[in-house]
Design a protein that fits this description.
Helix content: 25-40%
Order of helices and strands: EHEHHEEHE
Radius of gyration: 21 Å
Distance between the termini: 38 Å
Structural class: alpha+beta
Length: 137
């Protein structure tokens, strides 16, 4: 269970550093189980850095790169997201990207009953505004 001088695993779970076994996703899941995933070295140095960042930045239960839209986007953009990704609960920020000021959210209840002729409606007209949301800080 002693992995190195500084780390003693809670359980004897160690995944193999093989390119067919351990990449960021496996390392994350091993860590969630109390083990360790040793990333393989068949990546370029830049790819290895990105894999390590993925593991280190993982927060269980948090979406780290969410789909975000701006108030100028349209209902059509939300429906395209729903078709492509399988969901349409999308935060709306002033910049249309992470880090922008949250203005509201668009969910299926905001857009599902709209007719095709209304799909060019901008999100600021159909979204649920921030004042109606319960938001953590």
């Amino acid at each position: 269970r002693q992995i190195n001088a500084e780390y003693m695993g809670k359980t004897p779970f160690v995944s193999s550093p093989m390119d067919t076994v351990t990449e960021a996703n496996m390392a994350i899941h091993m860590a969630l189980l109390g083990g360790i995933g040793i990333l393989h070295n068949n990546f370029s140095a830049e790819e290895q850095i990105e894999e390590v960042k993925s593991v280190k930045n993982f927060r269980h239960g948090f979406i780290l790169s969410p789909v975000v839209l701006s108030p100028e986007n349209t209902v059509h953009d939300v429906l395209a997201t729903k078709k492509e990704r399988g969901f349409c609960g999308v935060p709306v920020t002033d910049t249309g990207s992470m880090g922008g000021k949250l203005l509201g959210i668009v969910t299926s209840r905001d857009v599902d009953l709209l007719q095709e002729g209304e799909w060019d409606t901008t999100l600021d007209k159909v979204m649920t505004g921030k004042d109606a949301l319960i938001v953590g800080k």
